[in-house]
Amino acid sequence: MVNKELLSYIRTQKDLGKTETEIKSVLTDGGGWSAVDIDEAFRVQDMKKRLSSRQKNDAFIFLGIASLVILFLFLWFLFWVVSSLENPPNIPGTGIGIFLNHSFNDMFSVVSLT
To answer: Where do the H-state alpha helices sit in 16-103?
Structure first.
């Protein structure tokens, strides 16, 4: 099992812009860590990084698919409403029938005042 203190130190040093070689030399020379522990800690760090980037990719894929489904449903509903304008359903009490009973010709006709 990798030491949490070692993982934290490696993450901090990487955030500061240190290279893997620089971090390893400091840990082996002055830190007293074994090469096996250091290599294992770097493997764990890389694995965590890959998992987090994969989770982000999965989230973007999910959001993309959800957006397409919502767009499809919106377009399907819009087509249904436009196609029903010619033959509106009778839905009492909702007011939808009143709106749908008007055709496009009625909406855009010019009223003559003479």
So the answer is: 20-29, 35-84, 96-100
